[in-house]
Design goal:
The structure is a single chain. By secondary structure, the protein is α/β, with parallel strands linked by helices. It has two domains: 234 residues, 3-Layer(aba) Sandwich (Aspartate Aminotransferase, domain 2), CATH 3.40.640.10; 102 residues, Aspartate Aminotransferase, domain 1, CATH 3.90.1150. The protein is 38% helix and 16% strand. It is built from 14 helices and 13 strands. The strands form three sheets. The chain has a seven-stranded mixed beta sheet with strand order 2-8-7-6-5-3-4, sandwiched between helices. A four-stranded antiparallel beta sheet has the order 9-10-13-12, covered by helices on one side. Helix 1 runs antiparallel to helix 11 and helix 13 packs across helix 14. The two termini are 26 Å apart.
Length: 374
């Protein structure tokens, strides 16, 4: 049986159209600005999100990092959610490389932070004991709330608070396009209130490598300098950028609209899991309490849940049936749907999950420890 890999949407393989485009890509030295395929991709990303300029980077983490380098000075502070990827899953790059601190706020079950708490989190710049607030970030979709998409209205509200304090808003939009598709909104509406947005090509959009950062020309120029600082200057990288142009295209080879299939598959999986003995709702920010899993919370491609079993034994029983899921913070299990996972694969996964539950011994659910995953 072929392996069904639900550990992450980073395991996607390039589409046939991407492979053809990569093989035929026109290339040049991107550090000199001479790679026409990279230039076209950056322009396309900026156009779609309603921004002036874009920057192709190796990963979402690099995108967030160079955005911080563009916005912040050493010793400043970012306001962000306690369980945002930028806070807990990026090797403390904000401290090690940018030289800044994080003021972390609680993430709510819908993936948002309380706007009143954001407003109250700003430091007093006249007090020499306090760092200077320099940036607000949000994560869309919000991974730890089971991939909840944040609305344009909420984004505008947070941006207004940030701008009233004279600081920019950055969106960590690793799965930005899932939020766009789930809500049926224009990408420029969702990105519009923010000063910079990072989004990944290498997750649900199925590209092999890369992310984009978009914003004003001045900010993107500073981000480009930051990319060079962290070793991200790439040469004939149009071979990779070509896949991104396919992903962001309007034609049948584009991979944005097909994200709706992933959302449908995730909801189907969640509906089946919610009927199984031994599956309970995730804790943490994903869903309060340990009652039945609520499939209506599955709005994008994430399914988070807990098993009333030894988690490692359960995952190993799935692996023995050629289905891969992954440990997730707070004792959870995560399954992520993506390009290459079909509706038939979901039915196979459902059957494998029932068998894995039957094979493993019941046990109480415990909070578990944090396990970082992309």
């Amino acid at each position: 049986m072929p392996l069904i890999d639900l550990r992450s949407d980073t395991v996607t393989k390039p589409t046939p159209a991407m492979r053809r485009a990569m093989a035929e890509a026109e290339v040049g030295d991107d550090v000199f600005g001479d790679d026409p395929t990279v230039n076209a991709l950056e322009e396309r990303a900026a156009e779609l999100l309603g921004k002036e300029a874009g920057l192709f980077v190796a990963s979402g983490t690099m995108g967030n990092l160079v955005a911080q380098l563009a916005h912040l000075g050493r010793g400043q502070e970012t306001i962000a959610g306690r369980e945002h990827h930028l806070v807990i899953d990026e090797a403390a790059g904000h401290a090690v490389i940018v030289g800044t601190s994080i003021r972390s706020l609680e993430d709510r079950p819908d993936g948002t932070m309380d706007p009143a708490e954001i407003d109250a989190a700003f430091r007093d710049p006249s007090d020499p004991h306090e760092p200077i607030s320099g940036l607000v970030t949000i994560e869309n979709t919000h991974a730890h709330s089971m991939g909840q998409p944040l609305t344009a209205e909420y984004t505008r509200q947070v941006a207004d608070i940030a701008h009233a304090h004279g600081v920019p808003l950055h969106i960590d939009g690793a799965r930005f396009w899932n939020a766009v598709v789930a809500q049926g909104v224009r990408p420029s509406d969702l990105a519009g209130p923010a000063d910079t947005v990072t989004f990944c090509l290498s997750k649900g959009l199925a590209c092999p490598v890369g992310s984009l950062v978009v914003g004003t020309r001045d900010v993107i120029w500073r981000a480009r300098r930051g990319r060079k600082l962290v070793g991200g200057g790439m040469r004939q990288v149009g071979i990779l950028a070509a896949a991104g142009l396919v992903a962001l295209s309007d034609g049948p080879d584009g991979t944005i609209e097909r994200l709706a299939e992933d959302h449908t598959n995730a909801r189907r999986l969640a509906e089946a899991l919610s009927q199984m003995d031994g599956i309970v709702a995730a804790g943490g920010t994903a869903q309060p309490g340990l009652g039945p899993l609520d499939p209506k919370r599955v709005r994008t491609n994430f399914v988070l849940f807990k098993v009333q079993r030894d988690r490692a034994a359960f995952l190993e029983a799935l692996r023995a049936r050629d289905v891969l899921m992954v440990e997730y913070p707070h004792g959870q299990v995560r399954a992520v749907t993506h390009y290459g996972v079909t509706a038939d694969d979901i039915e196979t996964t459902i059957a494998a999950t029932r068998a894995a539950l039957a094979e493993t011994s019941p046990r109480p659910v415990t909070p578990g420890s944090l396990v970082a995953t992309a």
